[in-house]
Amino acid sequence: MSDAKLFVLSGPSGVGKGTIVSEILKEDPDLRLSVSATTRSPRKGETHGVSYYFMTDGEFRAEIEKGGFLEYADVHGHFYGTPKAPVLAELARGRDVLLEIDVQGAMQVKKSYPDGIFIFILPPSLAELRKRIENRGTESREDIELRLGKAVAEMSYLRHYEYFVVNEDLNQAVEDVRAVMRSEHSRIRDAEKILKKIEEES
Amino acid sequence: MSDAKLFVLSGPSGVGKGTIVSEILKEDPDLRLSVSATTRSPRKGETHGVSYYFMTDGEFRAEIEKGGFLEYADVHGHFYGTPKAPVLAELARGRDVLLEIDVQGAMQVKKSYPDGIFIFILPPSLAELRKRIENRGTESREDIELRLGKAVAEMSYLRHYEYFVVNEDLNQAVEDVRAVMRSEHSRIRDAEKILKKIEEES
User: Fold this and answer.
1) Residue among A166, A183, A200 minimizing CB distance to B180
2) ipTM at complex level
């Protein structure tokens, strides 16, 4: 009945996106996580096709030319991107795909794949986000201010998303995202198609 | 964070709406079921304000004049309707309201309360719906055909709804409706309002 969907998850750093994503993947073995491509060198323990698709600069540029990315960016001289083909292949197989990506990337995906469902993870408050970033204890005061400023700037993209989930309690946030994913399969986009299926089945 | 919502549930007779509704109410004690008003006489065991709000013909007509109904209809000489005030009061208290109603009523509610969320319960197939109606064993062949014809006519309203749920497995259907209800509280309708709340909280 329900066609597979691409779910795009964004949110400021420190909000706990990664934890939410791994919890969701744990609970739904049919869901596929989109793997990024990059031209940077593999680090210890990273596996091609799992951590990243590792590509040469030439390969990456050729793929850009072919329109092979849902989105890509040049970050400090290395390319990062979301290859289109594996995502479309999973969707064609009827499997939902989850893509965790920053707002700039998400805005590109919105253009290259408008049928995606865009979910924004928010902190309960800016004060709480500051606390979470500070509690990591790895950053200087300047870095923390920089990160918070970036978070506020990213959050201003909220209006381009369809859903928001506040990560106050992790379990609740995971259930919120799962409810969005489930309910999107109940959304009526083509009533005629649904009715035809019910009339034909016997 | 999330404002209360009115969920409107429709579907052809025999599809199992009533069972779905009672399961949902069982699992969510905060959810309120909308109670209808009627001018017909109370039957044995029916309680005013629980089964129905029982009204005189004059009272009902006066309420119609005041725009006091989300929808109403004259059925075989008796009025039936959904009083607006109790629904709005529950919503104002932050409680979601569930309204089970036929497609004609739902189309009226769509006009009187456009912020409602409209969910259509479907049978897995027309053949299965026929089986369910036949298995009740209380109806003549003509009645069954009449009921099926009505079901097909009602299902043609599907395109006016936002969500569909196929009642093949009851538990799955209940979870589908619950996911829709939960996810609607994650829908971004006013991004500025959401961001303001996060900035103000501390």
Assistant:
1) A183
2) 0.92
